[in-house]
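User: Show me an example of a complex going from sequences to structure tokens.

Assistant: Sure. Here are the input components:
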Amino acid sequence: MAAVSPKERVVVVSQSSLLVFLYIFLYFPIFFIIYVSFVDNTVWPFPPVFTWEWYERLWIMSDFHLGLLNSFLIGIGTGALSSIFAASAAIGLLKYQSRLRGLFAVLYLSPLFVAGILIGISSLMFHRNILGLPGNLTSAILANTTQALSFAFLVILAQLTRYDWRMDEAAMVFGARPARCFWEVTLPTIWPSVLGAFLVSFILAFNNLEVTFYNVGAIPTLPTIAWGTLRHGIEPELYSLATVINGLVFFILIILFFLIRLGFVRLGYRGQ
Amino acid sequence: MSAALPHHLTSLQLRDIAMTEPALKLEQVEKSFDKVRAVDKVSLEVNTGEFFSLLGPSGSGKTTLLRIIAGLETPGNGTVHIGGRDVTRLPPYARGIGMVFQDFLLFPHKIVADNIIFPLKMQRLPEDKQKEQLNWILSLVRMEGYEDRYPHQLSGGQKQRVALARGLVSRPDILLLDEPLANLDLELRKEMEVEMRRFQAELDIPFIYVTHNQEEALTLSSRMAVMHNGKFEQVGAKLDLYNNPKTRFVAAFLGSPNYIQGQIKRMEGTIAILDWRGLDLRIPAPANATSGDKIDYFLKHERILIQSLRESEPAKGENRFEGTLRDIIFKGQHSAYFVVLENGEELVVNAATEMPSLKIRHAVEVGWLPEAGDAFLKEED
Amino acid sequence: MVSFWKLRQSPNFRFAMLTLPGALFLLIFLVLPLISILIFSFWRTESYQLIADWNIENYKTILGQKTYLTFMWRSLVMAVSVSLVCLIYAYPVAYLVAKRGGRYRLILVLLTAAPFFTGIILRVTAMQQILGPIGLLNMALQTFGFEPIQILMYSNVASAIGLVYLWIPFMVLAIYLSLLNFNFELLEVAYVNGAKPWRAFLEITWPLNWIGTAIGIVLVFIPTFAAFVTPRFLGGVNGALYGNILEHQFGATGTWALGSAMGVVLFFICLIFIMIIWRTINLQRSGYTGEEF
């Protein structure tokens, strides 16, 4: 850290304390719930009496396995659709200097500015009353993709802006046809960002409540199970469920972190 | 669909044609972007074995022209022939050319060897052949032992060598170079200039070299074209362009000469007497010039004689003026002398550094023959 | 054939081939649904069935009845205050990470964003476990012989804390990304010319990062205004917000048409908010160079 004057030090120290407090604020509830999931005395868990009971109850919960599977399917479907659409759009927008790129960028980012519940209910009304599509996994994937697409687009765009499109020209001059050029040069360089986009949209759809809830019909997913349970007051199974999901999310975020680093290494090179 | 000729055939079979046909032929090539003529009816022939430079300021259209030759832009009008073959409508990957880009544009995810054999891989050359060609080109560019490095592990000069190797490995009909030295520091640039001339001479492949740096163009090329506003101002042997500029732009651009403006007082045969802010100046009369015409006269720094007062008698017809030496800027073997004349105008003179008789703030004499400079009628804007 | 070959090679064609699929998807599955609820909002529902009987009764209900307006007003107050709290808290944090994070700033900022990915429902559960009546906070107070803090239990304050908890990652991220592209040397120029740090912040940092900040505000405002999970589990008896009655129309009562109208109103309130923010943005003065990407 650069040398700082005493006055600046006060500022830096107070900003740092805000940051530390923010981390505590964000993570304490999450870690507390993980801690509680392992104890019997959940209301005042000091000193703890450890137990596996909440995991056992979760495991035998009738909807848990189905919900886990469904959430996975929604996540994978949404992730695949979103990352393919987003990668294709980001390449098109950045590679070809079209006059319409501003308009398309706005369209692709617009779902970020539509409330989740609005996407949920409007998809419900549209799918059911106009497409004749009942609430099921397909319906939930389609609705979730609208929102996840924006996030996937942002993830890819953030890294792809560093890509030098003249690289493709170089490949073409040396004899690569457009398809070959994509496989040999573009994709090997940008894949970390595409995979990153897939993972981000996967997590969003996996955990989504307000869009999924209205479009999945009577089929259980982990968030809708949690929502249903929570309505009857907190049940300790929720703690173990939360811990399982948090573990999964944490695992994916670690992958994501390394993908971002890798993406920067791959795209950051500009011949200098 | 226009099927591409396989490149490994073209380079062998078409080499015979190339003996008679120019390696590159452009005819009336035009390209506009939003009504701006980037390239305006350019015709050109470049022969095998030539090192040809396209020199021009930024925005002159030289890069667009190079991209048209590469197939990265399609011309609005005109034709492009490479090695006797009409490639105007062919995409870049079917043209069998080599190219070196401004920032080298090595593929960051491929090691040096894979970067270099990329063009061979695209031509589906057998792997043993690829290996053979790779070793050959690595030794030519003196990069043996670096095969397994990634581009980010190389220095600027090494990247440049790899980029050249990639451009040359398939022995293309023609090598295009887009300001390849622009991002290198001075020392490396000098080194690479020597190397590029060596590669060109050894391989006998024509190089088309785009640059805005006139020193590079004058050092490297055998022939060159000066480009301005999408048009060729002048094409020819480099010394010819330097010594006998045909247009005002070339005269003003090459050598960054002294710029003298005046009005013709009277004509004396092929000589015009110019009123240069009170001084009478003898210049070669431009065609169709009459008294009263406004004139631009360009005088290269090294064509002016500088000496202390009355060190020698003026030759017949020589312009000779007295002035004050304002400053001397040391530039190695020669120095730039800044002389303020009696009419307040300043001239820059290049002369040997060792001139003990010349002292700053002392009076000096400058002189030159009318033909030392190039005179043009002032263009009406 | 030739013309098709030329068409395929044209940049505009390739641009369209790459960008249109996603755009069409969004038009069909985002824009059309929004239009469809606009249409349904002028219908009516009878025993769980939509009936195409054009009327504006739904809007009269929403904009004319005091209860709906109260909920709307509550949501608005909630959204504005939560956005403000997030803004005031997130700015110095994002500033610190962007300016002094050095090689750790990526991990530092990702740590603030990560909880967002665990999903609303689990985060609200976690919050309830802290703030609820049998949550950690109250149990701790009781264990040590204090009175429970009523205001943190099933109240609008608890909702607000929950919403800040949910959405502050967006604010940090938006401001951080803006500051990442901000040239901090401009501040040194201001200091050299005699500006005090606070003044330099107001004159240089704030206006030059206003776009990112504004995006952060909008990204917090919208989900807060539409919130229904958080107020339901943290807000208690009087904590219901606009999102809750909206949700209600699609649940037990099954009044689709009224619900659609409420959705449309929600959409336009958010749109008006975006417009107001948008009017404050001056691209040129924000150091925008004309290069979008």
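The lines above are the inputs; the final block is the predicted structure for all three components together. The domain at 63-236 of chain A is CATH 1.10.3720.10 (MetI-like fold).
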